[in-house]
Amino acid sequence: MPKNSCFAVNVIKGFFRRKPKNEMKPNKVIVGLGNPGSKYKDTRHNIGYMVLAELAARYASGKPTRQFHADCLDVRIAGQNVLLLCPTTFMNLSGSSVSEVVRFYKLDPKTDIFVICDDLDLPVAKIRIRESAGSGGQKGLKDIIAKLGSQDFARARIGIGRPSSTHQVVDFVLTQFRKEERVDVEIAIKNVADAAQIWVEHGCAEAMNRFNVDEKKK
């Protein structure tokens, strides 16, 4: 497996095909946003990739592919065919991959797409799930909204914190989590993987009810 795959090498071993193979039409697609390459491995901006690696560890039984400008893996979750999709276009062009898979499989983004990404405006490891919303400045989400022509798709944001100065943002998102943050981040990754499973099985409203805990307290 290429080292640049968003799926952990010790989880899945296989080969990559170059052209789409419609072997298992997915009912749902879970998208993890990040940047490809070892340079960006485990950085804050790649937390979407980390969640998909967790999902792969739980559900994968087949081989990964490289298609739709993404690393892809077909899995079964709650009795449904699900495609795990990590765009390899770099964050700012994530919409090209997502829109291509939506067109190819004739999916409805409102019910069939769940995007996982980082959020600078949330404290580290805090989770927010939405059925529809703007990009909030997250450039991957912004491009997906532009390419789909709609903001009506489910998404889970995971907080990565924000640096003290705005001019440090570009460098900050490409740093790894600090040692004292990692336990909470690992818990958040597992919780969002759980939320993705609930979304597949019961829909976004149920995932929101279970994981948007702070908002329920308000």
Short note summarizing the structure:
The chain has 218 residues and is α/β, with parallel strands linked by helices. The chain is 35% helix and 19% strand.
Key structural traits:
218 residues, alpha/beta, Rossmann fold
Question: Care to describe what's here?
Answer:
With about 220 residues, the chain is α/β, with parallel strands linked by helices. The protein has one domain (about 30-215): Peptidyl-tRNA hydrolase (Rossmann fold), CATH 3.40.50.1470. Helices cover about 35% and strands about 20% of the residues. The protein contains 8 helices and 7 strands. The chain has helices at about 45-60, 95-105, 110, 140-150, 170, 180-200, 205-210, 215; strands at about 30, 65, 70-75, 80-85, 115-120, 125-130, 155-160. The protein has a 7-stranded mixed sheet with strand order 2-3-4-1-5-7-6, sandwiched between helices. Helix 1 (about 45-60) crosses helix 6 and helix 6 (about 180-200) runs antiparallel to helix 7. The chain is globular.
Q: Going by CATH, what is the homologous superfamily? A: Peptidyl-tRNA hydrolase
Radius of gyration: 16 Å
Largest β sheet strand count, sense and barrel closure: 7 strands, mixed
Assign the CATH architecture.
3-Layer(aba) Sandwich
H/E order of the elements?
Answer: EHEEEHHEEHEHHHH
Record field, number of beta strands:
7
Shape descriptor = globular
The secondary structure category is alpha/beta
User: How would you state the average pLDDT, rounded?
Assistant: 89
Low-confidence stretches: 9-22
How is this fold's topology laid out?
Layout (H helix, E strand, L loop, with lengths): L27 E5 L14 H13 L5 E3 L2 E8 L2 E8 L6 H12 L3 H4 E7 L7 E4 L8 H10 L5 E6 L9 H4 L9 H21 L1 H8 L1 H5 L1
Parallel strand pairs: 1-4, 1-5, 5-7
Antiparallel strand pairs: 2-3, 3-4, 6-7
Helix pairs in contact: 1-6, 2-4, 6-7
